[in-house]
Amino acid sequence: MKKQIDKDYHLHIFHAKQCDPKKCTGKKMARFDLARIFDKVQKIPRGSILLDPMAKQALSPADKNEQNITVLDCSWETVEEVFPQLMRLRLQHRALPYLVATNPVNFGRPFKLTSVEAFAAALYILGNKKQAENILSKFNWGHVFLDMNKEPLEDYSKAKDSNEIIKIQDEYM
């Protein structure tokens, strides 16, 4: 029996230049060559999964065949203004299910994830736990995210589709 090898996803960040550069997880990921940063919307790979908190469909293991995952790195105060600008692109908008942030700015707050936490959650749900652990390893608080959210992430990673993700999420909310 062959051992299944996790495929690495290509991680992309559309950087809106609104965050504190010292606290920006996206910029740190780029410095470690873990993600590519774009400052132009047109550079986002077409068909990419865009992690969008306002998407009508939840990310699920059914999305695992896509190779590219994109996050928008912007201030939470302007997210409702910025995401609609991306609607005209051919991207697969997906919302992450209920998870709790462990970053120093939003510790303990549900849904208020940094770029690296969002990527790690997506990777875990899509079945690449090693890549999720790797990107979080660059942050001294990174392991806490997986520890604190282990049970829901495990459940989400076993779901078959978006509808099942929503049912599982309801159990945690």
From TrEMBL:
One of its GO terms (biological process) is enzyme-directed rRNA pseudouridine synthesis. Coiled coil: none annotated. It catalyses: an N(1)-methylpseudouridine in rRNA + S-adenosyl-L-methionine = N(1)-methyl-N(3)-[(3S)-3-amino-3-carboxypropyl]pseudouridine in rRNA + S-methyl-5'-thioadenosine + H(+). It comes from the Archaea. Belongs to the TDD superfamily. TSR3 family. Aminocarboxypropyltransferase that catalyzes the aminocarboxypropyl transfer on pseudouridine corresponding to position 914 in M.jannaschii 16S rRNA. It constitutes the last step in biosynthesis of the hypermodified N1-methyl-N3-(3-amino-3-carboxypropyl) pseudouridine (m1acp3-Psi). This is 16S rRNA aminocarboxypropyltransferase. The lineage of its organism: Archaea, Methanobacteriati, Methanobacteriota, Stenosarchaea group, Methanomicrobia.
